[in-house]
Amino acid sequence: MIYDSMDFDCVFRSAAPSDYEQLRRFLEAGWIELYTARISKRSVERFIREDGAGQHLDLHMATFELAVIDGSIVGSVNRCDDCITALFVEKRYRGNGIGSCLLHNAEIAGGRYLDVPMFNARAISFYERRGWSKLCASEEDAFGTRVGSFTMGKW
What we know:
This is GNAT family N-acetyltransferase. InterPro entries: Acyl_CoA_acyltransferase (IPR016181), GNAT_dom (IPR000182). Pfam families: Acetyltransf_7. It contains five helices and seven strands. Strands 1-2-3-4-5-7-6 form a seven-stranded mixed sheet, sandwiched between helices. It is globular, with a radius of gyration of 15 Å.
């Protein structure tokens, strides 16, 4: 079910230490949703076993921004210097402007670059509609599976 924007109140705020476990689960679910159909089962198992979401949070918890509805995290974005990572919105809340608000806030804070997997056409289209451009192509390691990605930028 997609929620109409009038059906909920969304609060945008910085992540707090008390958000760690809920945000770790949120990021893990988002990564699995995005990558499971595109990478090997072994790589997904490795991501879970090595706590890939927790590793990312251990490095970047202080720079995460959240979208929260009724105490639950429904969206996230991280901005570290001029790089944006971990922009994700829970499936049932997509299409309500939450991702656009998170991206806008990251841009205002100085985010100018991001990487997106080449297979994620939905995200690429989302960024291009908001003025982002593909700058270069590369490969990233998704826990043992090579995945093509685009670096995108906006000035």
